[in-house]
Amino acid sequence: MRLLVVEDDPDLNRQLTAALTDAGYVVDRAFDGEEGHFLGDSEPYDAVVLDIGLPKMDGISVLEAWRRNKRVMPVLILTARDRWSDKVQGFDAGADDYVAKPFHLEEVLARIRALLRRATGHAQVELVCGPVILNTRTKRVTVNGNPIKLTSHEYNLLDYLMHHTGRVVSRTELVEHLYDQDFDRDSNTIEVFVGRIRKKLEVDIIQTVRGLGYMLAQPPSAA
């Protein structure tokens, strides 16, 4: 999953970026509203962490501009604890959730996980496809109750597909949402990871849709 952090405080921006990166997300960051608006308007983010008090362009204006341009990614706003009006403005502008400063990083991580699940139609912490269960909080994958060991890249790919069960996901989309800008987009890395995941799961849930990409679906025996 690819996220954007827009926060002008260098230390807080660094802490948020580090925590989200450690949690397995690909994270871009901006330090003012103009840069944040440009990135959010031009890149395919799965969610955004957006501070309200930004230089050059305030967070509310950034969010309103995104929504006017039909940018629908979930947005978690950061507000001052004693500024309830910021929360109201944020929700009215199109925010999906908020965290009041100061906050615990674990709370931000939990809210991001919830926003990502809801944005793709999942309400529970566990994503299920046939005998495969992926726990978005613990990052544990099991098949018929047996734990499966995946690398971070393999987990992130499976996680994205399970968030989008039943929809064809192109190779380009996977690259854009799972890897940094310097990733070699002409390599066959995606195909290699898919092959490894299939071998480890030993369950036929990842279908190749020729010429289009991949789709996660119930295995034939569970259909």
UniProtKB/TrEMBL annotation:
It comes from the Bacteria. Keywords: DNA-binding, Phosphoprotein, Transcription, Transcription regulation, Two-component regulatory system. Residues 124-218 form the OmpR/PhoB-type domain. PROSITE patterns: OMPR_PHOB, RESPONSE_REGULATORY. Residues 2-116 form the Response regulatory domain. One of its GO terms (cellular component) is protein-DNA complex. SMART domains: REC (SM00448), Trans_reg_C (SM00862). Transmembrane segments: none annotated. Signal peptide: none annotated. GO terms for biological process: regulation of DNA-templated transcription. It holds the Pfam family Response_reg. CDD domains: REC_OmpR_EcPhoP-like, trans_reg_C. The modification 4-aspartylphosphate is found at D51. GO terms for molecular function: phosphorelay response regulator activity; transcription cis-regulatory region binding. Residues 124-218 bind DNA. This is Two-component system response regulator. It comes from Bradyrhizobium macuxiense.
